[in-house]
Write a structure and sequence with these properties.
Elements lengths: L3 E10 L6 E11 L15 H9 L5 E7 L2 E2 L8 H4 L7 H4 L6 H11 L5 H11 L17
Antiparallel strand pairs: 1-2, 1-3, 3-4
Helix pairs in contact: 4-5
């Protein structure tokens, strides 16, 4: 069973004569631990698909299943503890006055997880940044 499965997803914007079909019947499945790339030209609907999957856009048709459970367009609050959108622009995603450490520490505190320091070190290792990036600011990550 796929961790995430999208079946015949369609997203439209507007009404009547101004109706635009931004996404038209996309389907895919992602297994646990698998990486998946959604690629295409600018404006083809990649972000629109991700907004529907993440619950940021509730105006879609088709099916979205997470761990076998059908997701409704309007989500319960608990869903957002499991799934989050990470936007392409790091300056729009990361607070410019918070270090990487502060950004990683926030969800650990919110979710009441233990071993915060160990979790942060492991997370940095997993993305091959290492400890030297831990106390840097977003503008110091480029290059």
């Amino acid at each position: 069973m796929a961790l995430l499965e999208v079946r015949d997803l369609a997203v439209t914007f507007g009404v009547g004569d101004s109706l635009t079909r931004a996404v038209d019947g996309i389907s895919f499945a992602i297994e646990a631990g698998q990486s998946y790339g959604l690629v295409g030209e600018s404006g083809c609907g990649k972000s629109t698909v991700l907004r529907a999957v993440s619950g940021l856009n509730p105006d879609w048709t088709g099916e979205i299943l997470l761990d076998g459970q059908r997701l409704l367009p309007r989500r319960e609050r608990a869903f957002y503890k499991l799934v989050q959108m990470v936007f392409q622009d790091p300056y729009g995603s990361l607070h410019p006055r918070h270090t990487v450490n502060a950004a990683l520490m926030e969800p650990i505190i919110i979710h009441g997880l233990d071993d915060a320091n160990g979790r942060i070190v492991r997370a940095l290792d997993q993305v091959q940044l290492g400890p030297r990036f831990r106390f840097r600011y977003p503008h110091q990550l480029s290059g």
